[in-house]
Specification:
Blueprint lengths: L5 H11 L2 E3 L11 E3 L1 H20 L4 E3 L9 H6 L1 H4 L1 E6 L6 E3 H9 L8 H10 L16 E4 L3 E3 L9 E3 L5 H5 L2 H7 L6 E10 L14 E11 L4 H18 L7 E5 L11 E7 L7 E8 L3 H10 L5 E2 L6 E2 L2 E8 H12 E5 L5 E5 L10 E5 L5 H11 L5 E3 L5 H11 L3 E5 L1 H6 L1 E6 L5 E5 L3 H9 L2
Length: about 450
């Protein structure tokens, strides 16, 4: 298996307009990124596919779109106000700041997950851990740092007007549990999903868009009868894994890792992460699937004093549903897809081509229409004008056809459609496949169906 340097992939994404540095003209803003012309399409395609597969095509599920700013009591109920923190330490010599658990893990290979700040101080001492930047062993004590972004609602900036940017989208689902039950005809088991922005003031964001402070989550909260939860847990681990596989990601780069007892949140009965072999690490989490039991509904019920139980219409039994949650960040899926798709090949003539083997369903541009020579532009334009009604296609008449192929290979366009002089006679065009580079003649009248079949997910 070929592996490419992460820097090479990142610079390709920047050069081709997938991702731009955030606020670039002002010198940027620490670890913020903007999605460019192609990146915004790739992101949209990923989100559309998720919505289609997890919400629309699944008869059990419905979707909502809840607000980012929520009543702060939400975060008391969930424990985020008290406990959603990482411990940080500063190097007293060079002033570098670290997440204590990461510092420990990178130096010793021992996980510090779930350790208190005091326990982490002890580990730093006992293992004589030094600052990776300056090599000195002189740290402040580890202290917790809440990851929620704070802001104010209304005109007064006082304690009463504090609100938080949500750190996860799922709480907007739990608080709407009764509303969805009331306005849908769903019975348990059923799921509520949503896609939206989440914010975390990460101490050490990094690895490009892997860990950022502003990101999009796609979360599904799937409610079921207690006792049925582990069955659904397995079901959703498989469904998420298959979704990734169907997007064309190579299985040799994927694994499912079950959390052991020590790693599990106190309210979770089971959690598994789908991980990808990113170029910058051995394995990085992409998708977390957790059996959250009845924790969230019970806590919101307790704090809001609103009954969030469910009455089974057949048996009249009343219970608090259990919840299985597959949760994924759009940026993580994006990064996995592009790392997996990026490739360099040497052609027979010795030329090198950079190609992104993106699944046609996620590729930003589905096909590029190329007149062989400018004289044929009006005829080729007609094809473009017709196809654009159905697909995001582009038109390119600049440079040799070979150059246009390379340009499209590099951005992952799966098909190039060339209108040549024979087209005037046979009403057909040459369709060139990005991956095999094989060309076939397709009747113009059949082009739409041809592309539809190829792009199908
Ligand atoms: N509601 C559960 C929850 O939010 P999580 O493991 O904290 O669980 C779920 O986050 C997913 O969100 C992760 O698997 C990852 O894909 C994505 N994610 C979390 N923090 C992120 C960050 N700082 N930057 C980018 N994606 C992030």
């Amino acid at each position: 298996m070929k592996r490419y340097a992460f820097d090479e992939i990142v610079s390709h994404l920047k050069n081709t307009g997938y991702v731009y540095q955030g606020s670039e003209i002002y010198g940027g803003l620490s670890n913020s990124w903007d999605f460019g012309i192609l990146g915004s399409y790739l992101k949209k395609n990923i989100k559309d596919l998720w919505w289609r597969e997890f919400i629309e095509k699944n008869p059990n599920n419905v979707g909502i779109d809840s607000a980012i700013l929520m009543n702060p009591k939400t975060w008391e109920a969930t424990g985020h106000l008290k406990g959603f923190s990482d411990s940080m330490v500063d190097c007293k010599e060079c002033k570098s700041r670290y997440r204590a658990d990461q510092l420990i893990e990178e130096a010793t290979g021992i996980s510090a997950d779930g350790k208190t700040p005091e326990e982490m101080d002890e580990m730093i001492e006992n293992h004589n851990i030094v600052c990776p930047k300056c090599g000195k062993h002189n740290f402040t004590n580890a202290r917790p740092f809440n990851l929620m972004f704070k802001t104010y609602i209304g005109t007064l900036e006082d304690a009463k007007s504090v609100v938080y940017l949500r750190p996860e989208t799922c709480q907007g689902i739990f608080v709407n549990f009764n509303n969805v039950l009331r306005t849908s005809r769903k019975k348990i088991p059923f799921g509520i999903g949503q896609i939206g922005k989440s914010f975390r003031n990460e101490i050490t964001p990094g690895n490009f868009i892997f860990r950022v402070r502003e990101f999009e989550q796609m979360e599904l909260e799937f409610f079921c009868e207690p006792g049925e939860d582990l069955k659904w847990f397995e079901y959703w681990v498989d469904a998420c894994y298959n979704f990734i596989k169907r997007m064309g990601v190579k299985e040799e780069n994927l694994r499912v890792r079950a959390h052991d007892q020590k790693e599990l949140s106190f309210y979770s009965k089971a959690t598994s992460d789908i991980e990808y072999a990113f170029p910058f690490t051995d394995w990085g989490e992409v998708w977390g699937i957790a059996d959250r039991t009845d924790y969230d509904l019970k806590r919101h019920s307790e704090y809001s004093k609103v009954n969030l139980n469910y009455r089974d219409p057949n048996t009249n039994e009343v219970y608090t549903p259990y919840c299985v949650e597959p949760s994924v960040g759009v940026e993580r899926l994006f990064l996995m897809i592009v790392c997996d798709a990026y490739d360099k090949e040497t052609l027979e003539n010795g030329e090198e081509r950079v190609v992104m083997h993106l699944h046609p369903a996620v590729a930003p541009v589905k096909a590029c229409i190329c007149p062989l020579v400018k004289k044929l532009t009006p005829n080729a334009r007609e094809i473009f004008d017709d196809l654009i009604n159905e697909f995001h296609v582009e038109f390119d008449e600049a440079g040799t056809v070979g150059k246009r192929y390379r340009r499209n290979d590099a951005i992952g366009t799966p098909y190039c459609i060339t209108y040549d002089f024979d087209s005037l006679e046979d009403n057909a065009v040459t369709v060139r496949d990005r991956d095999t580079m094989v060309q076939e003649r397709v009747k113009i009248a059949d082009l739409k169906d041809y592309l539809k079949k190829k792009i199908e997910f």
